Amino acid sequence: MTAVEERLYKRIKNGVGRAIADFNLIEEGDRIAVAVSGGKDSYTLLQMLEALRRRAPVKYELLALTIDSGYPGFRADIIAAHLQATGVPYHVEKTNHFEIITEKRRPGSSYCSICARLKRGVLYTLAQQFGCNKLALGHHLDDFIETLLLNQFYVGSLKAMAPRMLADNGATVVIRPLVYVEEQEIIPFAQQSGFPVVCCCCPVCGTADLQRQRMKKLLAELERENPSVKRSLLRALANVQPRHLLDRELQQVCAVP
Ligand SMILES: Nc1ncnc2c1ncn2[C@@H]1O[C@H](COP(=O)(O)OP(=O)(O)OP(=O)(O)O)[C@@H](O)[C@H]1O
């Protein structure tokens, strides 16, 4: 590793360590399922959690989980070979999601959201089946703030993502240890690490989610004027001033007598 590569590796690892500490993401005895899609983010997540595990005073175990949704051309074998090489135990689950979505999707409904919902359900089930109390997902800082903006611009709600939350199944704790890591750190890291990134091969791969693309573009424009705009938006999520919002339920909580 060159000095520059080493610095990037340490910066990402420190960011993950900080998130773990700030949000109590990992505790003694945890068995964590790491959702690995074959994309740069979840490969990075797995590498960081495994590097930290080897030195952590807290004992925890990892299991990598990959869902093969059945899209023709999806190279689950490439992911499996990589996971095998990392030494982390893993499981690849083949599903018939492609068939289900093709048959059941109503015209106009979002392909990505149905696909993500189906995958999430299987990930929760598998985590429980394999005795994992937590599920780690590869969402990073940009995902958090793009979601924050999307919800404000298009949904009318003030919410982003949770770094730690109890899943709908009431049993699995979902964690997002890359919350402090920017996508522009992950891209060169994935390249320098030689991760075998594979395409999900779904029919809308790379063309979907135009609103998210719009947010990315907007943030890139703003960043040219203010290079710390993304960090500022992330800080805003940790610095909520309920008295200066319009939510009437919150107003009752903070009501001035
Ligand atoms: N097929 C899959 N198998 C296992 N986990 C998945 C799969 N698809 C998505 N995930 C999990 O959900 C997270 C968010 O999914 P999304 O499709 O938004 O991926 P992404 O932002 O492109 O990230 P990545 O680079 O890891 O694919 C991923 O980082 C990963 O942890």
From TrEMBL:
Keyword Methyltransferase: no
Keyword Hydrolase: no
Domain of life where this protein originates: Bacteria
Coiled-coil zones: 205-232
SUPFAM superfamilies: Adenine nucleotide alpha hydrolases-like
Protein keywords: 4Fe-4S, ATP-binding, Coiled coil, Cytoplasm, Iron, Iron-sulfur, Magnesium, Metal-binding, Nucleotide-binding, RNA-binding, Transferase, tRNA processing, tRNA-binding
CDD domains in UniProt: TtcA-like
Protein name as it appears in the record: tRNA 2-thiocytidine biosynthesis protein TtcA
The species this protein was found in: Geotalea uraniireducens
Gene: ttcA
